């Protein structure tokens, strides 16, 4: 099958801005899995530097970099006006010697560009939102910072797609509340790279005292404030926060400064360490160095951090929402607490940090759960079956 994957952002691993790195890696891994299954896959992303090659072959699929918008990293809000040009470029490209049998849009801007490109064709469109503006607004409140056009455009997009792919049960419910029929939503959980994330291997250096790890983008609403407020309840433990800009730029990062000031006010500055950005291939060493990984984001559609931690054999304590609620089995692979319940979070962390046998059992069960239910092979197979069903339903019926 010829499959076109559309992302309106550029690869964020080379420079700041655009999609979170984890989201882009998800899209790239989907492309690689489908190519490995024998499909002809092309991934479209925006060209954001003049020296970038127009095409590249990666892991068996072709990357095509679309020359729309400025050849530089720009905020998402500035890309909204490029969507129509992006769609027209795809339309022109697909009338040449290659046209997809199915298009899969990623994130709301990628989905809008894909929908624009196929609107006058019979090509079916599948959409993965990765996050939904309406749910982010409800959970983050004043900390929500997406462009104002996002929510109405997402509502319009769900009316244009054949199937929406949700990554958690919460996202299924949210799409239904937005007006999408349940039959038009498919739940496909993300996968975990078991070759990278596993219990055996090196661990990052640590102190003698217990370690709680938080992996985040260091944006407002990701729950690090809650962890700083409860670290005193846990006792003599360290809280290590990984993510955000590189370590040398943390001093000028507004959220990092606020977290450090909060730690000072709460008298726990000596227990809180901000590490900054860590290459994805080194994250496993940080997970393995922790006694517990805390997932306290105000919004987590895929629960990627909880899955990576579990794959490394580390129990998770997190808010029961989004992909975290799907990934973590309470009292089996970790503990779940009501979202925003800071006191319950502190009590659960304190109990688990002193329960060596419990952490050991949770960690072993976590590895088994990821290897059984969250492999990339399983994700690729589910998408392949979904694509085949969508194409079959869209295929024109021959006249008798």
Layout of strands and helices, then pairs:
Blueprint (H helix, E strand, L loop, with lengths): L1 E6 L13 H16 L3 E7 L8 E4 L2 E6 L16 H12 L7 E5 H12 L6 E4 L4 H8 L9 H9 L4 E4 L2 H9 L7 E3 L23 E5 L8 H11 L3 E5 L11 H12 L6 E5 L6 H6 L3 E4 L8 H8 L4 E4 L2 H6 L6 E4 L4 H12 L2 H18 L2 H19 L6
Parallel strand pairs: 1-2, 1-5, 2-4, 5-6, 6-7, 7-8, 9-10, 9-12, 10-11, 12-13, 13-14
Antiparallel strand pairs: 3-4
Helix pairs in contact: 1-14, 2-3, 3-5, 7-12
Can you give keywords for this protein?
6-stranded parallel β-sheet; single chain; 14 helices; 2 domains; globular; 400 residues; Rossmann fold; alpha/beta
The level of helicity is 25-40%
CATH architecture of the largest domain: 3-Layer(aba) Sandwich
Fill in the CATH topology of the largest domain. Answer: Rossmann fold
- Taking the alpha carbons of the first and last residues, their distance comes to 26 Å
Counting DSSP H or I runs of 4 or more residues, the number of helices is 14
Biggest sheet architecture: 8 strands, mixed
Order of helices and strands: EHEEEHEHEHHEHEEHEHEHEHEHEHHH
Number of domains: 2
Give the strand order of the largest sheet, numbering strands 1, 2, ... along the chain: 3-4-2-1-5-6-7-8
Low-confidence parts: 14-19
Mean pLDDT: 91
The share of residues in extended strands comes to 15-25%
Give the oligomeric state of the chains in this entry, treating copies of one chain as homo and distinct chains as hetero: single chain
Radius of gyration: 21 Å
**The CATH homologous superfamily of the largest domain:** Glycogen Phosphorylase B
Structural class: alpha/beta
Domain Glycosyltransferase subfamily 4-like N-terminal: 22-195
GO biological process, one term: carbohydrate derivative biosynthetic process
Protein name: Glycosyl transferase, group 1
InterPro entries: Glyco_trans_1, Glyco_trans_4-like_N, Glycosyltransferase_grp1
């Amino acid at each position: 099958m010829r499959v076109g994957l559309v992302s309106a952002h550029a690869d964020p691993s080379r420079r700041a801005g655009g999609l979170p790195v984890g989201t882009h890696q998800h899209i790239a891994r989907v492309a690689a899995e489908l190519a490995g299954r024998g499909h002809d896959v092309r991934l479209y992303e925006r060209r954001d530097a003049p020296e970038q090659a127009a095409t590249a072959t990666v892991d068996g699929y072709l990357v095509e970099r679309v020359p729309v918008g400025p050849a530089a990293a720009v905020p998402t809000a500035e890309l909204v006006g490029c969507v129509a040009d992006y769609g027209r470029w795809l339309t022109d490209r697909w009338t040449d010697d290659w046209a997809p049998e199915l298009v899969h849009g990623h994130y709301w801007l990628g989905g809008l560009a894909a929908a624009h490109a196929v609107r006058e064709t019979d090509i079916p469109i599948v959409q993965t939102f990765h996050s939904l503006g309406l749910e982010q607004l409800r959970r983050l409140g004043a900390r929500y910072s997406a462009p104002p056009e996002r929510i109405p455009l997402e509502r319009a997009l769900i009316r244009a797609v054949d199937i929406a792919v949700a990554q958690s049960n919460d996202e299924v419910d949210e799409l239904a509340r937005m007006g999408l029929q349940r039959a038009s939503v498919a739940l496909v959980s993300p996968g975990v790279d078991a070759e990278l994330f596993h219990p055996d291997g090196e661990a990052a250096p640590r102190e003698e005292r217990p370690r709680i790890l938080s992996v985040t983008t260091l944006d407002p609403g990701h729950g690090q404030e809650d962890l700083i407020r409860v670290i005193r309840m846990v006792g003599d433990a360290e809280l290590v926060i990984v993510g955000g800009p590189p370590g040398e730029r943390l001093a000028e990062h507004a959220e990092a400064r606020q977290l450090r000031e909060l730690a000072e006010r709460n008298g726990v500055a000596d227990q809180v360490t901000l590490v900054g950005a860590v290459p994805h291939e080194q994250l496993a060493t940080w997970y393995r160095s922790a006694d517990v990984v805390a997932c306290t984001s105000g919004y987590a559609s895929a629960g990627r951090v909880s899955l990576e931690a579990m794959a490394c054999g580390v129990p998770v304590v997190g808010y029961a929402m989004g992909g975290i609620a799907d990934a973590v089995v309470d009292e089996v692979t970790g503990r779940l607490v009501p979202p925003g319940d800071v006191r319950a979070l502190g009590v659960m962390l304190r109990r688990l940090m002193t329960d060596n046998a419990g952490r050991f059992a949770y960690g072993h069960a976590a590895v088994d759960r990821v290897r059984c239910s969250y492999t990339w092979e399983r994700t690729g197979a589910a998408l392949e079956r979904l694509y085949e069903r969508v194409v079959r339903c869209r295929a024109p019926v021959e006249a008798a």
